[in-house]
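Lecture notes, part 5. Sequence design as translation. It can be helpful to think of inverse folding as translation between two languages: the language of shapes and the language of residues. The source text, in structure tokens, appears below.
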């Protein structure tokens, strides 16, 4: 991957999104083990005391919501850009392949024409020249 790759520039954003996906809604990474990727069940404070939860989890803060929307938008744009780059690359590769095939076809055609002329000249010579006796 080149150093100017769009994926390399957006790696921190992708890492943040993946971290949010791993932890899930209301989930937390296990801080006691310090290992990434291990989830700890989200326990509401009322449930810890043995009671039933009287309130739903509070809604995420507006700034977190905005950051998530912004990260999702940037990811979407990066994927679209990457898709366009891949499509452009495939089109360019297709053009280059078509050009190479055209040149190759021309070379084959030229070789066949030369061989046919050579054969025609030889056959004409054989028909017009008297047979040689040794």
């Amino acid at each position: 991957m080149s150093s100017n790759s769009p994926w390399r520039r957006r790696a921190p954003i992708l890492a943040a999104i993946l971290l949010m996906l791993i932890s899930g809604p209301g989930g937390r990474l296990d801080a006691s083990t310090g290992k990434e990727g291990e989830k700890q069940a989200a326990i509401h404070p009322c449930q810890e005391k043995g009671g039933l939860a009287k309130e739903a989890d509070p809604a995420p803060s507006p700034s977190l919501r905005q950051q998530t929307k912004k990260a999702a938008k940037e990811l979407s744009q990066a994927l679209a850009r990457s898709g366009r780059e891949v499509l452009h690359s495939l089109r360019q590769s297709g053009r280059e392949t078509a050009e190479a095939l055209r040149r190759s076809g021309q070379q084959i055609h030229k070789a066949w024409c030369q061989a046919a002329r050579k054969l025609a000249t030889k056959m004409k010579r054989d028909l017009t020249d008297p047979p040689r006796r040794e």
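The translated text above is only one of many valid answers, since several sequences can fold into similar shapes. Residues 72-127 form one domain.
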